[in-house]
């Protein structure tokens, strides 16, 4: 049975750093899987590992043998079962480590006012399109991808590469348009694709009225470094998804603030 020799453990600055880093990693992982089915799988695996450590091999050889077999392939099972979560975790680390994409630094070096002025011009057509779609109760899902992962998006999308404009967005989501089903993906300051079928979230604790559009909006932000605007066809409400979480019924002022930060 594996064992950890606590007598050899000394409190040194490195040991404290070790514990702190492990705590941060566990906290981030917890944040990623909170409220998802993955959390239940994680608890199941944790129970197997705890049993593996406490079941005495000499007295209960059958159970101990089975637990050992499961524990031995544990790391492979973790990689297979938590593929999406590991991907999100690595994305999160890469995102935080990237100096160029850290806007605080970017603005410090290249000027805040200029960036915000340019940003408003980029955001305005999107907000105007949302205002009009809210009024006409036109369902829409607009994804803002930080990196346009061709493999991920192009498989299920219609490639456009169009300039962002209110009228283009409105025409895509208009009920008679052949592209209205699915999501629009905006990246690199362009409408890269439309009619995208995205992965839906597996979260179990979402409001009952959330259908596939909202679930896909949340799902894409779990699997990618992306945010999403969802306009509800039923209520006209605007929601905003980021990192697997959703803000419901937001105002246009709030939407502008969020886009300013994320887009
Ligand atoms: N996997 C998916 N990826 C992208 N879009 C999807 C996906 N599944 C469904 N949709 C879009 O969502 C629409 C169906 O929305 P549904 O009514 O289930 O969602 P909802 O969350 O209840 O939103 P609403 O409030 O607009 O009704 C489909 O017509 C399609 O355009």
UniProtKB/TrEMBL annotation:
<dbReference type="InterPro" id="IPR050338">
    <property type="entry name" value="DisA"/>
</dbReference>
<keyword id="KW-0812">Transmembrane</keyword>
<keyword id="KW-0067">ATP-binding</keyword>
<feature type="transmembrane region" description="Helical">
    <location>
        <begin position="61"/>
        <end position="82"/>
    </location>
</feature>
<dbReference type="Pfam" id="PF19293">
    <property type="entry name" value="CdaA_N"/>
</dbReference>
<keyword id="KW-0808">Transferase</keyword>
<dbReference type="InterPro" id="IPR045585">
    <property type="entry name" value="CdaA_N"/>
</dbReference>
<keyword id="KW-0548">Nucleotidyltransferase</keyword>
<feature type="domain" description="DAC">
    <location>
        <begin position="83"/>
        <end position="252"/>
    </location>
</feature>
<keyword id="KW-1003">Cell membrane</keyword>
<keyword id="KW-1133">Transmembrane helix</keyword>
<dbReference type="InterPro" id="IPR034701">
    <property type="entry name" value="CdaA"/>
</dbReference>
<feature type="transmembrane region" description="Helical">
    <location>
        <begin position="12"/>
        <end position="30"/>
    </location>
</feature>
<comment type="subunit">
    <text>Probably a homodimer.</text>
</comment>
<protein>
    <recommendedName>
        <fullName>Diadenylate cyclase</fullName>
        <ecNumber>2.7.7.85</ecNumber>
    </recommendedName>
</protein>
<dbReference type="InterPro" id="IPR003390">
    <property type="entry name" value="DNA_integrity_scan_DisA_N"/>
</dbReference>
<dbReference type="Pfam" id="PF02457">
    <property type="entry name" value="DAC"/>
</dbReference>
<keyword id="KW-0547">Nucleotide-binding</keyword>
<keyword id="KW-0472">Membrane</keyword>
<dbReference type="InterPro" id="IPR014046">
    <property type="entry name" value="C-di-AMP_synthase"/>
</dbReference>
<comment type="similarity">
    <text>Belongs to the adenylate cyclase family. DacA/CdaA subfamily.</text>
</comment>
<dbReference type="InterPro" id="IPR036888">
    <property type="entry name" value="DNA_integrity_DisA_N_sf"/>
</dbReference>
<comment type="function">
    <text>Catalyzes the condensation of 2 ATP molecules into cyclic di-AMP (c-di-AMP), a second messenger used to regulate differing processes in different bacteria.</text>
</comment>
<feature type="transmembrane region" description="Helical">
    <location>
        <begin position="37"/>
        <end position="55"/>
    </location>
</feature>
<dbReference type="GO" id="GO:0106408">
    <property type="term" value="F:diadenylate cyclase activity"/>
</dbReference>
